[in-house]
Amino acid sequence: MLGAGLDTYAYRGALREQLRMFEVDHPATQAWKRERLTRADIPVPPALTFAPIDFERQTLEQGLMAAKFDPSLQTFFTWLGCVPYLTEEAVWSTLQFVASLSNGAHVVFDYADPPASLSPEARASHDQPAARVAELGEPWLNYFEADKLRAKLLGFGFREIEDLGPRQIGSCYFPSRAVSAPEKGGHIVHAATIEQAPVERRSCNLRSSRVMGRPHGEADAPPRIQPRPRPHPFGDLAYRRSISNFQSS
Ligand SMILES: C[S@@+](CC[C@H](N)C(=O)[O-])C[C@H]1O[C@@H](n2cnc3c(N)ncnc32)[C@H](O)[C@@H]1O
């Protein structure tokens, strides 16, 4: 989990006993989280390793190697809510490392379309939080155009790239609100260097009903795997669909 923040998957996720997990995060955030875990009396699971790194000062490879990560195992990376805070250089370096893993890897991350490309409504929804995070000293530093990002990912060696824009995310996970979703805004990408089994290579709409095992209309309901305080649209779905491929403890 890159830029793990207060993500709690390692402590309660359905697969926590089958996977070796790494929480990679800025040293200051990670120290704060660990202090909060101690105060809340939540033990660190045996399969979890902390890897403190500042993406702007160290490479992901350096941070993971120091944490005894095995680069020969297939690995799934989630990198949610973090990419926009980084320089492009740090983003590319991290993705290049993921793509370089010899036995294959998946990564899920989010990004946003350039503000100038947004509709006036979407622009207003962007500008307010952007100003707030900038005021707090943690500005959003990057935006990507979907085509250029795809070309970059292919250049790094990713072979399967699924990029969901606001409308697709809406129709997959919040069908009752999809009609009002703007065309441009936030995206979630799943990129893999290894092909998935044909049964899993489906469009998002099909997958959300078949792989998750719930009727399409229930997409707003909490996932059945484990209750979670704040659902990530892609998180458990991606873990579940590819469990057979990923590094296990
Ligand atoms: C908005 S939080 C997202 C946390 C979590 N992934 C989630 O989705 O709830 C952003 C995360 O990015 C991390 N982050 C931001 N800049 C970073 C950097 N330069 N190096 C490492 N982590 C960074 C922060 O420490 C924080 O954990």
- Helices, by number, come to 9
Largest sheet: 4 strands, mixed
Which fold name is given in CATH as the topology?
Answer: Rossmann fold
CATH class: Alpha Beta
Q: N-to-C terminal Cα separation, in Å?
A: 15 Å
Low-confidence runs (pLDDT<50, min 5 residues)? 205-249
Structural write-up:
By secondary structure, the chain is an alpha/beta fold. Helix content is 35%, strand content 14%. Strands 3-4-6-5 form a 4-stranded mixed sheet, sandwiched between helices. A two-stranded parallel ribbon has the order 1-2. The longest helix is centred in the middle third of the chain and has 16 residues, at 120-135. It is globular. Bound molecules: S-adenosylmethionine. S-adenosylmethionine is lined by residues 3-5, 7, 25-26, 29, 53-56, 80-82, 85-86.
Summarize the structure.
With 249 residues, this protein is α/β, with parallel strands linked by helices. The chain has helices at residues 9-12, 27-39, 60-66, 88-100, 120-135, 146-156, 166-173, 204-210, 235-241; strands at residues 21-25, 48-52, 75-79, 105-112, 160-164, 186-192.
Structure characteristics:
globular; Rossmann fold; two-stranded parallel sheet; 9 helices; about 250 residues; disordered C terminus; four-stranded mixed beta sheet; alpha/beta; binds S-adenosylmethionine
Give the secondary structure arrangement, pairings included.
Layout: H1 9-12, E1 21-25, H2 27-39, E2 48-52, H3 60-66, E3 75-79, H4 88-100, E4 105-112, H5 120-135, H6 146-156, E5 160-164, H7 166-173, E6 186-192, H8 204-210, H9 235-241
Parallel strand pairs: 1-2, 3-4
Antiparallel strand pairs: 4-6, 5-6
